[in-house]
Amino acid sequence: MNTGQALGALGESFLDGMRLCLVVAGALTLLAALVCALLLRPRRAAASTAAPIAGTNTTGAATAVDAAAVEPAPNR
User: Fold this and answer.
1) Rounded to whole angstroms, how far apart are CA atoms 73 and 71?
2) I need a labelling partner for 61 at 20 to 30 A (CA). Which of 7, 34, 43, 48 fits?
3) Separation CA 1–CA 59 (nearest Å)
4) Residues 62 and 55: beta-carbon distance below 8 Å
5) Strand partners, 62
6) Using CA atoms, how far apart are residues 55 and 48, in angstroms rounded to an integer?
7) Triad 8, 11, 14: Cα angle to 5°
8) Measured CA distances, 11 to 4, 14, 16, 20, 24 (Å)
C-alpha cells in the first residue's frame, strides 16, 4: 500500500465516521423534540378537575360579597 492509498483510506474512514455522527445527532435531535412536545403539551384534564378557588365565581372573577367578607374592616 502506498502513501496515496493510505491517505485515501484515511479520508474515507473519516467521512464514514462523520456521516455516522450526523445520523446519530439527527436521531437524538428528533428524540429530544418528541420528548419536549410530550412534556410541554397543555394539561387540560388537570385544570378541569381542580377545586374552585374560594371567592371566585364560575368565570374566575372575584365576587363583591366574597371580596368584602375576606378583607378586614379598617381600624378607626
Assistant:
1) 7
2) 43
3) 82
4) yes
5) 56
6) 18
7) 150
8) 11, 5, 9, 14, 20
What is the C-alpha separation between 3 and 11, in angstroms, rounded? 12
Separation CA 53–CA 67 (nearest Å): 12
Instruction: Determine the residue type at 37.
Output: A
Prediction pTM value: 0.49
CB 55 within 8 Å of CB 63: yes
Q: Which amino acid is at 71?
A: E
Q: Which amino acid is at 67?
A: A
pLDDT digits (tens, 9 = 90+) for 40-70: 988 776 555 555 565 555 665 555 555 555 5
Contact (Cβ atoms closer than 8 angstroms) between residue 6 and residue 14: no
For 3, the grid coordinates are 502513501
